[in-house]
Amino acid sequence: MPPQLLDLLPAVAIFGCGLQAGIMLSVIIHDWRVGALPASGYAAMHAMRDAGFRRAMPPLMLGSLAVSLLCALVVPGTVLPMGLSALLLLLSMQLTVRRLVPLNRRLVRHGMDMLPADIVRLRGRWERWHRLRTALSIAAFIAALAAGQGGGFR
């Protein structure tokens, strides 16, 4: 692999991990204010946000994972931090697919006219899982930064 590409890969991984962590954190910050909305307002906002993220997040998450894995495999001195970053990203993706997406579907499926009877409980569950996903994404970003400091940049 050309040396220029080896130098670029950690930066791309750090960028992808940082972008993902930043988006996840922005949702937490945004939802502090959204928490004051009535259930119907929350459901409407959640449906709009989900529609956009459903298109944007899979490529970002998969791309960040792929580049982190590639770095761990080919960039000298990055195997442990980028491997850890990739593992944390994979856990975040699993959490998204197995916990958050089903909750998103349940919230959106009912529409604004017929909210689920347990929307308050669903909302709380979604927020808890999202906080864990955010923590995993931030940890993946920190691990990627460590790879950049540990020899990924020449």
UniProtKB/TrEMBL annotation:
This is DUF1772 domain-containing protein. The chain crosses the membrane at residues 12-35, 132-151. It holds the Pfam family Anthrone_oxy. Keywords: Membrane, Transmembrane, Transmembrane helix.
